[in-house]
Amino acid sequence: MVPLVEHRKAALISVLVLGFLLFQTSTAYSSESDDNAELYEFLSSETAANAKLFDFLSNVVGLDLTKYSVVPPSNVPPGFEGLSPLEFYKKLSEYVSTLPPVNVTRVDPFVGLVEEESPSFDFEYNNSTFDAMSIFYNGHMNFLKIRSYDEQDYVYSEAQPTDTLGRAKLILQRYQTFFQRNYGKDASYLAPILDILNNIDELSPTEFAEGNVTFQVTKDGNETRIKWIYTEGDVVMDWKRVDIDFRYGAFESFHDSWGLYTVSGLSEISSEEAFQIALDAAQNYEFRIVYENGTIEAVKVPDLSNAFYQEYFSMVPFRYSEDKFPSRIERDPLMLYPFWQYYFYFNETILGNDGIQVGVWGDTSELVYCSGFGHLGTIDPTIPEFPSWAILPLLLMATSVAVLCRKRLSKVLSGGPK
């Protein structure tokens, strides 16, 4: 029989070992959390957009960023290998400050009136990683998407609702506070948006209008998208909306352009008037062939009075392009304007063109563009909602489906091409 004193001695040793291990684990976790906090503090001091991104992830999505570390990019300059994330970003900041300015000739679609920022980071905890990609206009977060590289849910600072509807409500409630804290602007538009969620029992596919909000829920496999779109005079303005996407029930993306864009007013001209302006411009268009000897041959457009055509109406922001005609009024990149689009089709292609495309401002009756279109490519009359690098279906979204017409027998007011 083992003496009792030996049992007590063994038990005491076990307790001491366990306590030591727990202390070591706690110390390591505390040190890691402190490092992460210092890292986020430094990155937040670099740009206000970084600070708002981390604020949104922590206080709107609810992620526990004290556990997640920011992972530096793998493609780094010489001398950056082996550094901790904090050391890396501090050295990167110093390195960038020593670089000479890059002179790049670039056409600014915002004509210097809008500051565009796109902070993106990779995050890691316990071999679980996700990335966050965001877009800010004048300090307003227009879009955020996070995507996990594995099937694990994220690490949250507190327990989350178990259903997607509950999670959406919580995000909107927190976003109201975030909006007022970071932008200092009126957030009253969010109240009816949240009211709609509070008055439904489940997120099944649906679409209905309530006040100036068109509410949509769509599902595609494991993805659920909830959209609230600003509506005025039966015109659904997809450029001014709030939407939240969930994947496998977990948050995936957030978009708010409702709080970013204002509306100039609906179209001052009718569909018939816009059509006539576009038809006259298309009919007077000429293609030009320039020969090697400098000779120019003009090719006239055939009679389009009986041509098939497509008509679209949408409310879109102004974006400057050298391919478009200047407007006689000053336009704001963060304001939505009435915009008519027409596509007139030839019976057969002409110099690789299938027809003529025309854009008309609905407030001033001015032409926005007039050119051929076809498989050889021409200017894109639609206005991209996000930078070209965003991996999303981001061309101008329609407010309804276009109708292919002949002789103006059937025309609709709608948005741009889907």
Structure description:
The chain has two domains: about 30-100 and about 110-265, no CATH class; about 270-405, no CATH class. The strands form three sheets. Strands 1, 2, 3, 4, 5, 6, 7, 8, 9 and 10 form a ten-stranded antiparallel sheet that branches. Strands 11, 14, 15, 16, 17 and 18 form a six-stranded mixed sheet that branches. It is of the alpha+beta class. Helix 4 packs antiparallel against helix 5. It has six helices and 18 strands. The longest helix has about 45 residues, at about 5-45.
Sheet bearing the most strands, described? 10 strands, antiparallel
Order of helices and strands: HHEHEEEEHHEEEEEEHEEEEEEE
Structural class: alpha+beta
Radius of gyration: 28 Å
Shape: globular
Total DSSP E strands: 18
Q: pLDDT below 50 for ≥5 consecutive residues: which ranges?
A: 1-29, 377-384, 386-418
Share of helical residues: 25-40%
Terminus-to-terminus distance: 84 Å
Tally of individual domains = 2
Name the beta content range: 25-35%
Count of runs of 4 or more consecutive helical residues = 6
Q: What is the topological layout?
A:
Blueprint: H1 4-46, H2 48-61, E1 69-71, H3 85-98, E2 116-117, E3 120-125, E4 128-137, E5 140-148, H4 164-183, H5 190-198, E6 206-210, E7 213-220, E8 223-232, E9 235-247, E10 250-256, E11 262-263, H6 271-283, E12 286-290, E13 296-300, E14 308-317, E15 335-350, E16 353-361, E17 367-373, E18 403-406
